[in-house]
Amino acid sequence: MTMTCPCLEMAEMPEPDFIVEAVNVYRTAEHIVKQKLFVSKSNEMLIGMTGSNDIYYARTAKRDREYEKIFACRGENIDGRRVNIMVYTRDYVD
To answer: Which of 3, 47, 62, 87 could be a cystine partner for 22, CB 3.0 to 4.6 Å?
Structure first.
């Protein structure tokens, strides 16, 4: 599943890596973060668990331009917010 944002369609640009397969994307002071959420079920106990694979992309001038073009529709909340998930993994991309 790939994140859809009306601004991405209006931007007329290829999808940057931080958008592909993202459920949520937000920005911190040093990174643009892609969240890929998942649900895991255990058949033995009928217990479900939600989690997130977070990929942190170092902010660069190019990525910031792409991010700002794609998420201009967020207005004042352009940096977005993290979807709070208790279990997560982190990967970093320069």
So the answer is: 3
Q: What is the pLDDT of residues 48-61, one digit of tens each?
A: 778 999 999 999 99
Q: What is the DSSP letter of 4?
A: -
Residue 15 within a domain = no
The pTM for the full model equals 0.80
Q: How many CA atoms, within 13 angstroms, populate the side-chain half-sphere of residue 6? A: 4
Domain range for residue 69? 6-10+32-93
- Please write the tens of the pLDDT for every residue from 21-35: 999 999 999 999 999
Count of domains observed in the chain: 1
Contact present, 58 and 23 (Cβ < 8 Å): no
Residue positions counted in the chain? 94
Contact 82, 37 (CB under 8 A): no
